[in-house]
Amino acid sequence: MAEASSTHPYVYGMAAVHRIYRSSFASAPAFIESAVEDEHRRALVANYYTNILASVESHHGGEEECLFPLLIERAPKQRDVVELGIEEHQQVLALLAAAKTANASWESKGDAETQELVSALGSLDGALSAHLDHEEASCRSQSSTSPLRSGR
User: Which CATH architecture has domain 12-139?
Assistant: First the structure.
């Protein structure tokens, strides 16, 4: 695993994962439209979004379980930044639940649910993109005294 430099915490892995989410949600309308009247393709695209949505959920769960408590412990003066991230996660989780429901419905009911899924993924994309932008900006602004660097 790559290490943080002496002046910046290692955030490239996080940004790479975020790029996958951004690309996947930006591509959603085209991917979904490509499956109209094609049951086999719809199953493949639905499976893809099932996995992407599960990944977002896991990614955020890991941050809440491991990263946020560590940040609060090591940088109590930055608590407001962490709490904003937690608030954003709650907004994203509500939209994530709606997107999961819409994806399952589209997969089982077909083309009649296309617009509902596109809309749900678009709403999730908007909130998630804003959160990811905030998260990345917060990490980039960290100095060598990053709370993630435990006395190294």
Answer: Up-down Bundle (1.20)
